[in-house]
Amino acid sequence: MRNVILPALLLPLLLAGCELEETEQAGEQTGDQVIPYHFQFKALSADCSEDDCDSELWVIDNRGDIRQLTNINENGSSYPSTPVLFNEQYYFTADDGIHGNEIWVGNPLNGEVSLMQDLNPGDGSSYAGNFIEYQGALYFSASSDTAKGSLWKTNGTAAGTELVIDPRHDTPTSSADVGNLTELNGNLYFTAYGENDAEEHVGNEWWVSNGTTQGTQLLVDFVPGNDGSGVGEIFKWKNKLYYQATDGNNTLSDNEHSYSLFESDGTALGTKLVKDINPTENQSSEARIKYITDLGDRFIFVATDGTHGSELWASDGTEVGTIMIKDITVGETASSIRGFKVLVNQAYFVARSGDTSGFWKTDGTAQGTELIRYFDYATDLEIVDAGIIISARHGDVRGLWLSDGSSEGTQLYYQSEDIGWLNSKLNPLVYFYKYTDPLSQLWHTDGTAAGTQQALDGQNRGAVEVDD
User: Fold this and answer.
1) CA distance linking residue 246 with residue 229, whole number of Å
2) Is the CB of residue 249 less than 8 Å from the CB of residue 201?
3) With 60 as the cut, is the pLDDT of residue 461 above it?
4) Cβ(89)–Cβ(73) below 8 Å
5) What pLDDT, in 10s, does the model give residues 337-363?
6) Which pairs count as long-range contacts for 239-242, CB under 8 Å and 24+ apart, including other chains?
7) Model-level pTM greater than 0.70?
8) pLDDT tens track for 102-112
9) How far is Cα of residue 354 from the mean position of the Cα atoms in its chain?
């Protein structure tokens, strides 16, 4: 097992993130209460020579500090995934250049990072992912030399890591493509290619598990054959799963619908269509659902009905209650909606209409959907303590704007032509890109000009690329 030691000065950050016993180093002291610093692990790239960057695991925090944790691949990039916390340790995947892409574990108590297990022995990769904690174990999808894209679980040790099921019945040449792992009402659900009880092949469909091999089975076969129902955009709301899927065709029919809004209560009978949003009979009659967001008594999302383009929709989980609430760009042209950041049962977002962009808010109703102000071009937004930060251009001015949610309260506070996407929110900071020649830079802002600056580590290095 290969071990890498984390720098000792980073342990207070790790301890704070694990919600273990904190020290004064872990945060600010307020009376008898210690407030830990909030942080995120990121796969950041630095030490770049033009297009050749070293992507390793770093920490970024809400004080504006960034630090590289370790260098797993000393001869190149390890391309680490975003770690997940399980049993007070962090698990992620990375490639050390020897074992392929495998699972690693970081111990915040002793600062040690080590390879947990080489599931696909040698330089092959297991490509583990879709991690979820369920019934005291960490479940995930991975490939070994005998089972491709199957369901695994671990207690955090190599000895406690085992295959739960290969839905393809241990077929080493074809991947089950296990994904979309979700817990609902005490069961674990996932999508996969596999075989039914009659040993007939099924496409990518919903499976249900109690965490054991014997207790894992196909939930429903919506589209018989190889294609599957193409489940995506999964959203858990009021003890049901809502998602985009198809039950088999792209034309008008009484009982078949192209990619549209479905729901499941975790049973075969309770897995059904909510509404065929795009019933048009054309080459692509897909609803193209995305950005599903909870607003309490309803959820909102972006979809197209084949007539209005990609626009703002809302649903209360019923067919009659699933409606388009605003045609921002009238006609077939899409509104290019981005975002949905929620603050007190209001969702804020940016959308394009014609040659201009709008900064909008909605409560999920037509009457409660309002334009706050126009921009020539708005990229996206984030909500922090200071207000709503928007990356936008208006006239000859490009930069960051701060808003209290009103037109008159939306003002430019930092001007720069190089600002790109907002990347991460760590209250009270927002991290964002600046595109400079030849490489991008990672910056952060607190909603003030003075608090907008490049994120540099202790060696005066700046991150140039973020892999979420």
Assistant:
1) 5
2) no
3) yes
4) no
5) 987 999 988 999 999 887 889 999 999
6) 239/184, 239/185, 239/265, 240/184, 240/264, 240/265, 240/270, 240/317, 241/182, 241/184, 241/189, 241/265, 241/266, 242/274, 242/292, 242/299, 242/315, 242/317
7) yes
8) 999 988 777 68
9) 29
